[in-house]
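user: can you give me the structure for this one chain? tokens are fine.
assistant: on it. calling the predictor now.
[tool input]
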Amino acid sequence: MAETTPFFDAILLGLLEGLTEFIPVSSTGHLIMLSEVLGFKGQAEDLFKVVIQLGAILAILLVYFSKLWGVLTGLFRGDKAAVGFTAAILLAFLPAAGIGVVAHDYIKSVLFNPTVVSIALIVGGIIILVAEKLVKSPRYFAVENFPARLSLSIGFIQCLAMIPGVSRSGATIIGSLLMGVERKAAAEFSFFVAIPTMLGAAVYDLYKNRDVLAVDSVSLIAVGFGVAFLSALVVVRWLVDFVSRHGFTPFAWYRIAIGTIMLSYLTFFAA
């Protein structure tokens, strides 16, 4: 493959991050696979791939600003719905916070490779196809009404996404559907849980790798952040309507196809 510049790589990776963060195809897995093809590797590059996720989070904050601002002001008034919403998000975030700190180094050193990603994409796609046939009539339609046990259970399921290629949004959404959450509420819950989960991961990685930050890496992060924000903005506005009409089966077939293609590439071209 022709050699590219770091800034061009940053644009491509930022675009890929924004397009894949909130759909059940694993943004981290896609970033690992594209980095393998581009040769975008190293400690600073790994940090880049974590921090640009904050661009996608900014898109969530913008699209749902009215909702989140209403929750914030409602907390000060003691509003029951605002308290329920906040409790659901925090409970779902807790398992990832605890397990992530303990398992962070092991996951990064052992599981972050394109072979693991490819296999996880294929297996995850098959699981989505099966799960879509098992989904029952929904019982929960609003995040603020989620019982504590449901929120915590979804939080533990989200931890499966620490394996790159599984997909944080995919694990959260499919887990929610199987536990009786309506499709729109499941998709939006995955958006909201992403805020503390991804913010925590980015801050922790920045702290752990603060010694590798330089002017060049900060510039690349800024480029990737901006592109990820703009592309995620488009996806977030589109996704809820799409899954309400089509479900998640199209993403399952995409996962299986891209995982198979990447495994073939690794087998025949990357050796």
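assistant: here you go. Residues 6-63+104-134+161-175+182-265 form one domain. The chain has a mean pLDDT of 88.
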